[in-house]
Amino acid sequence: MKRLAEICYDRRWLVLAGWIVLIVGLFAVSAALAGEYKTEFKLPGSESQAAVDLLKESGVSERTGFAGQVVFKADQGIKDSTVRSTMESFFREIESSLEDVSVNSPYAAENSYQVASDGKIAYAELNFSDRDNEQYIEDADEVKALHQDLQLPSGLKVELGGDLFASQPEFSSEIIGILAAVVILLIAFGSLLAMGLPIITALFGIGCGTALIGLTTRLLNVPDFTTQVAAMIGIGVGIDYSLLVVTRYRQGLHDGLAPRDAVVLAVDTSGRAVVFAGLTVVISLLGMFFLNLDFMRSMATGAVLAVLMTMLSAITLLPAMLGFVGRNIDRFGLPHRAGAAEADISRSFWYRWSRVIQNHPWPALVLSASLLIVLAIPVFSLRLGFSDAGNRKTTDTTRRAYDLLSEGFGVGFNSPIVVIVETPNSADLATATKLKSQLQATDGVASASDPIPIANGKLQLINVFPDSAPQDEETTALVHRIREDTLAPVISASAIPALTTGGPAFVVDFADYMGNKLPIFFGAVLVFSFILLLIVFHSVVVPMKAVIMNMLSIGASFGAIVAVFQWGIGASIIGIGKEGPIEAWAPMMLFAIVFGLSMDYEVFLLTRVREEFDRSGDNRRAVADGLAATGRVISAAAAIMICVFGSFTLVDDRSVKLLGFGLAFAVLIDATIVRLVLVPSTMELLGNRNWWAPQWLAKRLPTIRVEPNQPIGEPGAGGN
């Protein structure tokens, strides 16, 4: 790291030119060679996916993809000639404008169940064939355009039902994050130059990472939202890493080092922390590979590329930029000139606070740990699933369609359970009809349609409508009840295969799959992170403590999410329509991001504490000095992340709100209760035992130190 810093400083023009060529070249190559983004949600081995595969094999392509509705209400009745003419014309337009889309009209005799008993509300089924997510979006936009152009007679209301037709949030969190970073860095550093360098460095890294993600589309099916996820994580780690290096550089200048020596010191200390912090984030993200889902692997790959590029820019481009700035790092400062504490860390708030905690370690430990445990208690009530359109605003056409279906048929009609029965012989039709009656009699079923022949009669399709909403726990229970109590005996007795699919079945399968995989994912990330920290610090206690504290922090965040989004406590404050299950993908995504960022802060703090401990041999002083030296930079980075993630709660989409709230709350807890109270109190109580490891283990561990092996430069020493 020392040699790298010297090369980047001495050849700063070459390094800067290299980065400019790299980012321009990557974007040029990506524009020329990148493939298309493809979002494919498939769940191999699940019953719902098996049903879709069966439909594909049978040639029923229009039933293998997205299903939506055209819901309409006519005060004069849906059989009014003007109403019927308008709606049938609309259905024909949809079928003629889109490929592989079928419309099941409520005016067809076999679809009479799609008309409400009062004759004023009805719906048409839109059945799409399986296709890329991007094609779904284009087709949905076409349907929405046709919907906008409808000339409706008086008394007729038409809405579009289904997730694909939901209003998309127009919101750029990246811009909000950068603006928040500018303000917070100005307050923290009091200098325009000190503020600008982390922003510029992070943008270079994120830009290169984004271009590389584009190139991976040639090799992988990369979801279209991968760049947004990568940018969100890249902003976080990129600014964090650059903040740490710039802060250490300024401290070196204030201690009397020449600029060159200060750069070398910063990279050989904070730069090492950046590398190992980045590796912990990479490990956390690569844990998604254990989920064995293609779209998760592609997304993890994209995020890893963004992290690696921001990490590389922090240890190469930033030292070169510091070479250009030199002693002018504090020029263009604001009146408060936030550099005084860097010259004497014993004057800082963080140093004084560490002494307060160290003088009362037991109360600090008990109170902070108790608070985290209490916040984590709701996790035991966690229910995975997906929210439904009833959570959206009434300005959204899908919410209005949801309300119309609930009014005319009951909430279960918003997402029916689809049962596919194989009937290769005519004698099997009687079994399918009998099965319909048994489904109708199943507890929790509002109604079931007559068997609908498809695939030239080789398959029968039965729509089962729950008497509960799609996101309700009763609907989840109904899916299991149909599979285990209703279908299983029929399959066993008649040897006729029957499979369940449709929205509720996919939700149940995905939630069950994620619930089973999450312990493996969590365990793998924790084990590999423990091993990495063990190698870095040559201590068993430090990595064990880091893992436990980060789990407490994440547990508290998950608990808060359950309390707000599942129980509805304070839901109105952030604009949630109603309580519901936690999105099945959220725990995995939150854990990967939050654990990575938490370990960043842990590595930043502990490497500085270890450096001070090696210098003085006094654990008490090392904790105070380490916290004083890193407290402000960690708090500034956390404040930026809280603003970035918190801005997601302003979006109308519930799942986006959930992600933003969870991330912001986790960072808030980690940067306050954990780093300011729990860490210093436990390190005070453990004393020199913080750095203990069995001799037999310590001798066998490779020596990879984050701290420099020798002092770098003397005050006033050479360099420019």
Which class of secondary structure composition applies to the elements? alpha+beta
Strand content: 5-15%
Distance N to C terminus: 19 Å
Helix proportion? 55-70%
Number of helices: 23
Oligomer class: single chain
Extended strand count: 11
Label the overall shape: elongated
The largest sheet, given as strand count, sense and whether it forms a barrel, is:
5 strands, antiparallel
Low-pLDDT residue intervals, each spanning 5 or more residues: 709-720
Mean pLDDT score = 84
Radius of gyration: 30 Å
Which keywords apply here?
about 725 residues, alpha+beta, five-stranded antiparallel sheet, four-stranded antiparallel sheet, elongated, disordered C terminus
Write a brief caption for the model:
The chain is α+β, with helices and mostly antiparallel strands. The protein is built from 23 helices and eleven strands. 52% of the residues are buried.
Explained architecture:
With 720 residues, the protein is of the alpha+beta class. It is built from 23 helices and eleven strands. The strands form three sheets. Strands 6, 7, 8, 9 and 10 form a five-stranded antiparallel beta sheet that branches. A hairpin with a 4-residue loop joins strand 8 and strand 9. Helix 1 packs across helix 11, helix 2 (12-33) packs across helix 11 and helix 19 runs antiparallel to helix 20 (586-616). The longest helix is centred in the last third of the chain and has 35 residues, at 503-537. It is elongated, with a radius of gyration of 30 Å. The chain starts with a helix and ends in a 20-residue tail after the last helix.
